[in-house]
Every structure is written in C-alpha cells, then in structure tokens.
Amino acid sequence: MKNIGTITFHKSHNYGSVLQSYALQTILRKNLIDYNCEIIDFIPPNSKEMYSIFKKNTSIKNIAKNILALYTYRLKSIRYKEFERFINTRLKLTTKKYFSQSDL
Fold first, then answer.
1. How many CB atoms lie within 10 A of CB 93?
2. Can you tell me the distance from the alpha carbon of 12 to that of 43, in angstroms, rounded to the nearest whole number?
3. Which residue among 3, 92, 93, 95 has the highest number of C-beta atoms inside a 10 angstrom radius?
4. Is 9 exposed, middle or buried (0-12, 13-18, 19+ CB in 10 A)?
5. Domain-wise residue ranges, the chain
6. According to DSSP H, which parts of the chain are helical?
C-alpha cells in the first residue's frame, strides 16, 4: 500500500481549516483505495500563541483582550475542546508530530 501525506494547517480551531482538512482526506481515501492517506501533524512554532485564549504580549490592546477573555473563557474553552475532539477522532494524523520545517 502506498502512502499519501498531506500537509495543511489543521489545528487552527476554525471551521474552514478543520473542515478543509477533513474533506480533502475523505476525498482522497474514497477515491484512492490503494493508498494510505494521513495528514502530517505539523504544528508551527507560533501556533500555540496565535490561538491561545490569553495573549502574552503586555500591550494595552492585549491587556484589554485578556480582560475580555476572562468573560468568554468558558465558551472558548468548550469550543477548543470540541475542535480537539473532532481533530482527534475524525482526522487520521501521523503518529509523529512535527514542530518546524526542518523536522519535516
């Protein structure tokens, strides 16, 4: 069996990127039966900070965002967990995680 590895930004926790990853993998698996299709689990170095509920930068703008995030933390936390559940149950990811381009 031959392997196909797709690389995409699948962990951004927005509907567009996650559903695009799922759709591409589904189409490949459906049409290429003799192939093992996986999404390369690539996690860019800055992605955790970019999608974090709380911002680390101490600018006035980010302090205001952090104060607002306190009020929406519960909802954002639930949303985050739901995206993680979908990614972990519906997407076939590589067992190895890649954290930089040189790792690839």
1. 17
2. 9
3. 93
4. middle
5. 2-103
6. 15-31, 47-50, 60-90
